[in-house]
Task: inverse folding
């Protein structure tokens, strides 16, 4: 129930209670007045003028009481009619006034809340576009709404400066970290390929290249994690099934090398967002499913549409996963089974990147252990249609 509707209902409710109490009070006052006047017509004794004298006789003693009885009946009929009309007209007036109070409350709340709607629209645009340069710029009297919008604009300004500083830092760190790794890889590769290189040198060079490759993947993962958290999404429609099929084709060689069989059931799943980031999401899930598997294992990849959501499901065989570890696998640098030595299985950032990219697309990601061993990870994203 919106604030505007609550305000209108409260206005109508207050008017209804006050008007109903006033109607009840008026009704009892009028009813009491009629009862007092009726007592005039029904005394215990009546006054009779006879032969110039005033006499008091008991009721129903002579013909004067007949006239008084007729007057009483007329009075009672009038009383009934007046009270009935008061109930009917008063009830209609209370209901009509309640409806009018609701309408006035609705219009008044709309006028009062109009600046807040502007604040909400601006906040929604910023949340959807991540454009922190936009401001509300409310130009109105110095009241509570003006104070709120000024605080909101100040907060957006600070957030924009903070994010700009982080972007510059990430860009500089990317350059500073990648450059020496690229030089190291080139130097080691040249040393290994020299004709006079001994077998010990070649083995050492291969080990250094593996370590260098692990560091490069770690840096790429950190950068992807940062970019996903600060992504300015250009929401364009695409089919999640096409992205999954492209990733599976690229991962086929690695799966064959590790003797992992991949099964795909890719139904159309239209969604919208940054296709490059979603491709990285699917790639991380598929690579995890292949690398955290055993020889002659299996991977199942499914895409489908469900009502207003599209779903990507990646399941794999492998070691049993304890249920208490499920809550932490989406945290950075967390690996299952305490694996921190196998560099070929990644840097521990894959699922963290998956969660960040999913949340940037207003989606959800969940993981459940399979009874036979391994994991089932489901990603749900908003569906895209022509009317979206």
Result:
């Amino acid at each position: 129930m919106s604030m505007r509707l609550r305000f209108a209902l409260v206005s109508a409710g207050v008017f209804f209670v006050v008007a109903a109490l006033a109607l009840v009070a008026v009704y009892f006052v009028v009813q009491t007045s009629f009862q007092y006047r009726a007592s005039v017509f029904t005394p215990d004794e009546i006054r009779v003028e006879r032969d110039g004298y005033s006499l008091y006789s008991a009721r129903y003693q002579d013909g004067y009481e007949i006239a008084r009885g007729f007057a009483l009946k007329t009075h009672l009929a009038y009383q009934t009619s007046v009270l009935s009309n008061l109930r009917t007209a008063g009830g209609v007036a209370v209901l009509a006034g309640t409806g009018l109070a609701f309408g006035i409350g609705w219009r008044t709340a709309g006028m009062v809340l109009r600046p807040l709607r502007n604040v909400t629209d601006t906040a929604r645009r910023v949340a959807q576009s991540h454009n922190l340069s936009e401001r509300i710029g409310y130009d109105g009297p110095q009241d509570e709404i003006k104070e709120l919008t000024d605080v909101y604009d100040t907060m957006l300004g600070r957030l924009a400066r903070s994010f700009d500083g982080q972007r510059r830092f990430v860009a500089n760190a990317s350059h500073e970290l990648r450059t020496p790794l690229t030089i190291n890889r080139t130097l080691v590769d040249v040393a290994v390929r020299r004709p006079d290189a001994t077998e010990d040198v070649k083995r050492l060079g291969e080990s250094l290249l593996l370590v260098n490759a692990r560091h490069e993947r770690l840096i790429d993962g950190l950068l992807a994690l940062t970019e996903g958290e600060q992504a300015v999404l250009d929401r364009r429609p695409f089919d999640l099934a096409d992205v999954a099929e492209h990733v599976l084709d690229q991962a086929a060689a690695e799966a064959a090398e590790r003797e992992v069989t991949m099964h795909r059931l890719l139904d159309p799943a239209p969604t919208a967002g940054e296709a490059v980031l979603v491709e990285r999401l699917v790639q991380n899930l598929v690579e995890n499913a292949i690398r955290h598997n055993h020889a002659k294992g299996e991977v199942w990849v499914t895409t489908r549409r469900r009502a207003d959501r599209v779903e990507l499901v990646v399941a794999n065989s492998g070691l049993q996963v304890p249920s208490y570890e499920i809550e932490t696998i989406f945290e950075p640098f967390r690996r299952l089974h305490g694996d921190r030595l196998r560099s070929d299985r990644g840097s521990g950032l894959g699922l963290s990147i998956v969660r960040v990219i999913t949340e940037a697309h207003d989606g959800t990601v969940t993981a459940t252990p399979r009874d036979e061993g391994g994991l089932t990870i489901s990603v749900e994203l908003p569906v895209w249609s022509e009317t979206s």
